[in-house]
Amino acid sequence: MKALRWHGVKDLRLENIDEPTALKGKVKIKVEWCGICGSDLHEYTAGPIFIPGGAPHPITGEQAPIVMGHEFSGQVVEVGEGVTKVQPGDRVVVEPIYSCGECEACKQGKYNLCGTMGFLGLAGGGGGFSEFVAAEEYMVHKIPESVSYEQGALVEPSAVALHAVRQSKLKVGDRAVVFGTGPIGLLVIEALKASGAAEIYAVELSEQRKQKAEELGAIVLDPSKVDVVQEIHERTNGGADVAYEVTGVPPVLTDAINSTRIGGEVMIVSIFEKEAAIKPNTIVTKERTMKGIIGYRDVFPAVISLMEKGYFPADKLVTKRIKLDQVVEEGFETLLQEKNQVKILVKAE
Ligand SMILES: [Zn+2]
Ligand SMILES: [Zn+2]
């Protein structure tokens, strides 16, 4: 079968590899759609990051070259011995987290914080940029007829956004601000709508991204045109209840802190590549809190239910659809060049 494998920086190859088999406890899936994620792009331009480069991953036992793609939907074609959760014909999405099951994080059920955590599609185990994947039974979640395969490919990134909002102290009727409206920032806006936020502010510079945020119902503020901290304080009468930092840009963290009210909260949703200097007193003197989240846990069923209600809409968030043999030029390269792209989906055929 055809599969896209990471060999090195700027070296992704569409190759012919053996189809996976439905071994004991595994579910063989015919992939329908797979999204290109920001972390896939990082592996392309600056990897290996999550991809095991020099030594095999402790859980999968695999190392580069590995098949990429972790945001996918598909149909079950075969199940291995002992599998009871799904059967051939079922429509599914995959929650692509490998965890050891033994470390302190795993014992607490926080499998996304596992010390040897890995992603199917980055750490081995096959991936969604191929025709078939054999995933572990525990990773598989059924999707109903009312959730399309395209929509299904958005479950994984939407799970990050829903986890961020669920881990924050946002209450129904609160006011929130999202700094950065790339794909995850836009999904955070959707998660906030689903969670009953009364007002959602979005801070963004890019013209196209501003438009998308507005289309989803956010009140957009451009930091090149207004003092966003002052503007948010005025409009909310004292500051946002919760700010979500989704840029990874150090000075933005300071704005995120200062945009919240006394006792407010800052959720760090992005990965920072550098140190970010903050003034601790901006936390101390207002009794604010700051918290980070990574990935997701236990939220796939909730995301799927919200999608049935129309949240995280694929028709607004998917900006391009391509085929597997176009994935490098029309997918990865396009995402690097075109800021107006939100989510590019790849059809596995
Ligand atoms: Zn992802
Ligand atoms: Zn663990």
From TrEMBL:
PROSITE patterns: ADH_ZINC (PS00059). The keyword Glycoprotein does not apply. SMART domains: PKS_ER. Keywords: Metal-binding, Oxidoreductase, Zinc. The keyword Cell inner membrane does not apply. Residues 8-346 form the Enoyl reductase (ER) domain. Its cofactor is Zn(2+). Belongs to the zinc-containing alcohol dehydrogenase family. This is 2,3-butanediol dehydrogenase. The lineage of its organism: Bacteria, Bacillati, Bacillota, Bacilli, Bacillales.
